[in-house]
Amino acid sequence: MKKNFLVTSIGGLFSHDLVRALRVEKNSFILGTDMNETPNAYFLDKFEKIYDPKKNKKKYILKLFELCKKYKINCVLPCSENECLEISKNLKKLQKMKIRTSVSNYETIKNLMDKHLLFKTLKKNSIDVGEWHSLKNFNELKKFSKILGYPKKKLVIKPRIGSGSKGVIIMDSKIKNFKYLLSNSKRFCGSGSINAIKLELIKNKKNINRYIIMPYYNDKTFDVDCFAENGTMKLCIPRLRTYRNPLSPTNEGCKILSNKKLENFCKKIIKILKINGVCDFDIILRKNHKPQIIDASCRLSGSSTASLALGINIPNILSKLLFKEKIKIKRLKKIYQVFPQNRFELVK
């Protein structure tokens, strides 16, 4: 069967690797979409601009189905959470059109995207999520920061719904003036004392409604790429972050390895949330070697292609699973260190 892929958010930093990974399917066609023009379009069979689902949900989904019909798409791989959310609301229509997708149902996606709902659901099912509190205003920030040990301890506040490091703030009583931790200040990622944070929020006309507060963990952090079928885990690849900047929005390097504790931990989470598709977990391994989830995503991780360097093609494995084909997953017998590299590519 010819595989006609529609891959969204193709303008991402590692999207060229994703296209390269899908190219192993010799009889395939790759349509990429994005809200903006991108150099990655040169490596596709076809590129189309699409609407921003955050700004216009109806136009976005109508355009998506229009493109599916036009290019006879039979597999949709969304690479942004907002697109996953809209697609999850239309799974029945995709099924009628005999189009496969990596997206779980709407209720599952909602729980994965909202950190408060995620932690609440998992805690109810005896999964370690540590301590956290949902915030509505600055008075609650003062109240819960004291409960969590501020000013002696560092804390983290972040949006309930958000990806990467956007809006993530480290509360540190030693930093009297707010300090941005990324060159792109629009991501509003920084550090400061509670008073410095308040001043910066006022200055930027921002509030902390629908944020959460939790301890600052200085433990080993893993990105875990997973795929599941009806709550059963089919694929699990843990990647230990080796970042210079722990809040970097893009991967700065990782160690890829097998870890039974992490794999069993992910297996439980997938079963509880009834995941049917792709998921990406951020998990810390505490000094007592117990895993704890700190974030989750409902899409293929932007850096999932890190495993390509050692012969594990996650996008291709995903494709085979979606098309009910046999897969063979390489067992990791040692730890592999990989780093992203910028390079020029010849367009043929």
How is this structure best described in words?
Helix content is 28%, strand content 24%. It has 348 residues and is of the alpha/beta class. The chain has a 6-stranded mixed β-sheet with strand order 6-11-7-8-10-9, with helices on one face. Strands 16-15-12-13-14-17 form a 6-stranded antiparallel β-sheet. The chain has a 5-stranded parallel β-sheet with strand order 3-2-1-4-5. Strand 1, helix 1 (15-22) and strand 2 (28-34) form a beta-alpha-beta unit. The mean pLDDT is 92.
Secondary structure layout:
Elements: E1 3-7, H1 15-22, E2 28-34, E3 46-49, H2 57-70, E4 75-77, H3 81-88, H4 91-96, E5 100-101, H5 106-113, H6 115-124, E6 133-135, H7 138-147, E7 155-159, E8 169-171, E9 179-180, E10 190-192, H8 194-203, E11 211-215, E12 220-229, E13 232-241, E14 254-256, H9 260-273, E15 277-285, E16 291-297, H10 314-322, E17 336-338
Parallel strand pairs: 1-2, 1-4, 2-3, 4-5, 8-10
Antiparallel strand pairs: 6-11, 7-8, 7-11, 9-10, 12-13, 12-15, 13-14, 14-17, 15-16
Helix pairs in contact: 3-5, 5-6
